[in-house]
Amino acid sequence: MNDDRFVYVTYIRTTPDKLWEALTTPEFTRRYWFGVSLESDWTLGASWKLVFQDGRIADAGEVLEIDPPRRLVLSWRHELRPDLHAEGFAKATFDLEPQEELVKLTVVHEIDRQGSKLIEAVSGGWPMILSSLKSLLETGAAHPRTGQAPKAA
Predict the structure, then answer these.
(1) In the predicted model, what is the mean pLDDT of residues 84-101?
(2) Residue 10 to residues 20, 70, 108, Cα–Cα distance (Å)
């Protein structure tokens, strides 16, 4: 893995449409992504944001490419930690490929900056979030740790 790129591939027993809904609707993201809502109108050039229940915005950006239910590309900037925010915009790409009763989900998060603290951070976050998403779609239950909002400090 390069310092400026994180790639995660998983296979989920679901349909492309259900996985797309899980990735793009606030009602679904709240269930597996630490209680955050992923909000956008999901059109080319639209803004998007990850919003905690208390209104804080965790991440935000713009829809760079959208082809439901196959591909979503987002510009991505972290909004809470000043050191990550200062790195500017990264790009997150979600590719969904049907494979019989499964969907292959490939997430690539990249930034034009060697040694990126953002990529280091998402390298720990994406596996947990996507594992929880997989569990939710396959069993109806997200992981307990990711299915709720984090406790306030």
Answers:
(1) 97
(2) 14, 15, 12
Q: Which domains does the chain have, with CATH numbers?
A: 5-139 (3.30.530.20)
The dihedral built from the CA positions of residue 70, 31, 127 and 151, taken in this order, carries a sign that is positive
Give the CA angle between residues 116, 121, 110 to the nearest 5°: 50
Residue that has been written with the tokens 């955050």 in this structure = 36
Q: At what angle do helices 16-24 and 117-139 cross, to 10 degrees?
A: 130
What is the value of pTM for the model shown? 0.92
Query: What type of residue is 49?
Result: K
- C-alpha–C-alpha distance, residues 2 and 67, integer Å: 27
Region of residue 85 (phi > 0: left; psi between -120 and 50: alpha; otherwise: beta):
alpha
Helix (H, G, I), strand (E, B) or coil at 20: helix
pLDDT, tens digit, 9 for 90 and up, residues 53-89: 999 999 999 999 999 999 999 999 999 999 999 999 9
Amino acid at 71: R
